[in-house]
Amino acid sequence: MGYWNSKQIKNFFKTNEILLFCLKIFNFLYKIKKIYRKLLLFSIDSILIIVSINIVKYFSYPFNREYVEILPNNWLLLTLILVVFIVYNFTGQYLSLSRYIKSSEIYGIALRNFLVVIIFLLVKSVLDFKIFAIRRQFILLWLISTFIITFYRFTLKEINLYLTLYKSQKIIKVAIYGAGSAGAQLASSIVLSGKSKIVAFFDDSQNLWGRKLLGIPIYPSEEICKYRNQIDQILLAIPSISKDASSKIFNKIQNYEIPVLKVPSIEELTSGLAKIDSLRPIEIEDLLGRGAVMPFKELVEESTKGLNICITGAGGSIGRELCRQVLNNSPSKLVMIDNSESNLYHLEQEIINNISQNNISDNKFILGNIKNYNFIKDIFIKNKIDVVFHAAAYKHVPLIESNPLQGIENNVFSTYSLCQAALDTGIKKMTLISTDKAVRPSNVMGASKRLAELIFQGYAANSKYEKYTNNLGRKFNYPKFSIVRFGNVLNSSGSVVPLFKKQIANGGPITLTHKNVIRYFMTVPEAAQLVIQATSLSRGGEVFLLDMGSPVRIYDLAKQMIKLSGLKIKDSSNKEGDIEIITTGLRPGEKLYEELLIEAESKATDHPLIFKAKEAYIPIEELIKDLADLEQCINKQNKEESFQILSKLVPEWDIDNNKC
Length: 660
Fold this sequence. Notes:
By secondary structure, the chain is an alpha/beta fold. The longest helix has 35 residues, at 134-168.
């Protein structure tokens, strides 16, 4: 059965006055008491049963001149009404809301009418009312009465829907991409809501082309262009769709400038977190990256389950996701450290609200500066920490360019204190979360992160000694220091994605530094999963590199985000567009593209998305002397000498970009 839009409804009823009158009647009926509404429906059903008897008699005796008057006896009429009342009322005929009845209601109507006919037949046999040979025609009476009452109930539903559409004034015309079970469920939900009109289904399966689903035609996706002016939205109804497939579909329809919404993922639907009609816009995160690779359970559990874990920078983007994933894998204890009171508070609230989902009894939120060796050492000892994930760092390139000494001090000496404390307290493993900006750095932030890597590599080089005796004479197994290096993380605090979203929300323009800037992107959950698994693969001294997928041109990213928002790009060819993209020029220390390796070649590991390399390092004994000099220069706020020492330790850094 097709569905009319408001214009068709108006043509059918001829005038708006009739429509408004009908609306008032239905509104009145919905407002009256339940008992009166039920009596009205019962009266209509009784009349329809009587009409059915008339029809049966007509078909039974179409040419009989001695045609018997219908229901000549008032007792017969009262008996019929009583039977209808008892059967319909006690079998739930009036429990379903007329607006929302389903096709399965037909079976209920058929069963009730069968009972009415049988009971009426028995009563007739006992009282011997002379009506007609109901024993021969009762099947015909049952079929006709069932058809008439079903037709009446579903007509009432359709009128309800049409009037709801008219009342809503603005009818959203949608097309559903995906004619499977999810598409059918979504279509049923849309029809019941009465707020949208489904124009068509689109699907890539040739077996479905030319067929209909719920009375709505199914077309190949190539025909979207024919209906572009008839569609306000396209609803993607494929819950199990991969990122690659989602990206291909979006690229196919983005030129039509039609907003695209999608149903929840199969995980959200099966877990009950969302319903099929909980539509949301396609986000840029749905298109970037690659299809998810399931984590290796044994690798995840090796570095989390039953262990005492410490995460520095726990309130940041990566740190917070590490906390979530560690908690999901049953650690014995999780210690979360951050020097930002606000970040730590929000993290604490999130963990507390979800504590019932986490199999852990001991969470600690510690506010403090990890550059303080005694502070971090005390935490390691008191909590018997086994594994440390070092995610704390200053990462915003322009800010660190403006405040270079603070960036160097934080990124370098927090790492130094952590490594020494790990050595002195018997930590089993410690992993540094690094960045691709540490490779041949062109800015202070990248150079400071490269020096942090060198500290890790210097300590790791001594891991040839299986046992280590600390300054108190206690012996420990030597910690396994490793580095995980990767590129941009979507929606992290330093990512361009949140910035672009904010600029679009404000009406533009989007600002980017250069049209040819290329970056790799990875989602925060995937990055955190791979960091944990890389830690399990660590044997000491490795630089782990994460497969970041395909590179993305930032200019193309900006254009795609504008289109995802249902807006048009404003440029020389379209001056009436919504959002303009402006290039401002490369910032100091910014590169057009990033790398993940300095000189070494990467090797495969047991995980397909994790690679490893061994890079040149500085012996820790030599490094410590230069670190002491660097600390003195920073304390004196001597930027020039600090830069000279940093340049000596990180010779690939282009110091010319940061001259005083």
